[in-house]
Amino acid sequence: SQKIEQNSEALNIQEGKTATLTCNYTNYSPAYLQWYRQDPGRGPVFLLLIRENEKEKRKERLKVTFDTTLKQSLFHITASQPADSATYLCALSRRTGNQFYFGTGTSLTVIP
Amino acid sequence: SQTIHQWPATLVQPVGSPLSLECTVEGTSNPNLYWYRQAAGRGLQLLFYSVGIGQISSEVPQNLSASRPQDRQFILSSKKLLLSDSGFYLCAWSKGQGVSNYGYTFGSGTRLTVV
How many cross-chain Cβ pairs, A to B, lie less than 8 Å apart? Predict the structure, then answer.
């Protein structure tokens, strides 16, 4: 069955540094990949969508890469701030259908 | 603007009792609707999705069911809750016809504890 894995351990980084989160998948050929931010007790908030034919996508301080050969996506937050502390989720979808399947998430803490 | 409402925010129910969670979307028509469950320390598990009134697709066989009686209303139900049904239930919507550039918009969730 399909498997979507994110950094299992929490990530702590110093303010101002670049945070890099990983999303790996197996037994799957996604055509779309999304990243979400989730704060405790809240629903996830959509951040970025990247398609299989796109290598990289940027939005302000965020950058996402999508490597279908490595079956991996990297999510970068540059110039990180304490307000970026949250859990970040990746989600994948096939070419047909609208439903996305989520990874377990990575907890990020930015230390002032 | 579009909004999504989900209630109740928290719920404590005894084992064997019924369940009904409601989700409504405003400001859009013919949305795709989804129910996810998030167990403690785990990712979001897709339970049901719907592309139109009365059209429900189930992802995981279990004692839960979903219905979409109106275009912007999505209901999650159970006749008899199990302890394993405890979790954080999230409703979401997306624009219809293919993958949306705007992703999913999630509701605020219902924290269900089955005791």
Answer: 61
A3-104: which CATH number, 3.40.50.150, 2.60.40.10, 1.10.260.40, 3.30.360.10? 2.60.40.10
Distance of CA A38 to the CA centre of its chain: 11
Interface residues on B facing A, Cβ-Cβ cutoff 8 A: 32, 34, 36, 41-46, 49, 51, 57, 59, 90, 92, 94, 96, 98-109, 111
Q: Is the pLDDT of residue B99 over 80?
A: no
Q: Please judge whether A32 and B99 are an interchain contact, meaning their C-beta atoms are less than 8 angstroms apart.
A: yes
- When scoring A54, A100, A107 by the number of chain B Cβ atoms within 10 A, the one with the most, hence best to mutate, is A100
pLDDT attached to residue B76: 97
Q: Is A108 within 8 Å of A22 (Cβ atoms)?
A: no
Q: What are phi and psi of A66, to 5 degrees?
A: -140, 110
Task: Quote the CA–CA distance of B11 and B9 in Å, as a whole number.
Answer: 7
pLDDT tens track for B44-59: 999 999 999 999 999 8
